[in-house]
Amino acid sequence: MNKRQFFPILTLAALGVLTSISAFADSKIPKVKFTTNVGEFVVELYPEKAPKTVANFLQYVKDKHYDGLIFHRVIDDFMIQAGGYDAKLQERPTRAPIEHEGQAALAKGGPKNLVGTLAMARTQAPHSASSQFFINVKDNAFLDPTIIPDGDPVAKFTYQGQTYNNVPRENLINHPALFGYTVFGKVTSGMDVVNKIKKVPTGASGPFGSDVPKTPIIIEKAVTLP
Question: Could you tell me if 113 and 58 lie in one domain?
Fold first, then answer.
C-alpha cells in the first residue's frame, strides 16, 4: 500500500519520518554477505525465531571466524557445509556450543529445511552446534525438528509415519532424533553461486572420506550488511 496515494496532504517532513521508520524496520533483519572465490551470496537471518543461534552466528561473523574457511562438505542434491575448516583442512577453534533452538523456532512459525535455507550443523548431540552451518540445496524434510504435542503422557504422537500412544513426555523431550536441525536464515541473493558450489567435483581429503571439493571453495570474507 502506498501511503502517499491515501494521504496526499502529508508534509515532506512527515514523509521523511515515514521513510526513516521504513528503513529502520528493514534494518531489523540482519543480513550477511559471503564473498567466495566463486562468487557472492547474501543471507538474511531470523532472530525472532532463533535468537541465540542468530546472535552466535553474527558474533562469529564479527570475529571474522569465517574468513579464509572453506566449504568442506558438499553433497549435490542435499546441502553444502562450511564454517569449520581452512583450505589445509585444519579445524579452526570455536567458542562453546549453543543451545539447540530448532523445535522452539519451528513452534514460532520458523522456516523448515527447504531449498536455500541456512541451518546449523552439529554432531549427534543436539546441543553441540558452534560455528558450522549448511545451506540446503533441496527440500530436506527429514532434517526438520519435530514439535512435541502437549500433555504428559503425550496421548498421540506421530513420527515418520508411525503413531505412538501415551508416550511419557520425558522420553520425547530427550530423544535426540526429534531435535532436527535449527534453520535460522535463508539465501536472498546469489543462489546461483550456491548452485555452482553444489556441483563441484568432490572426493576424499584430510580427515574426510568423501565430499570435500577437489578445488577449495574459499570464503574470502563474511560481513554484515547495513
Answer: yes
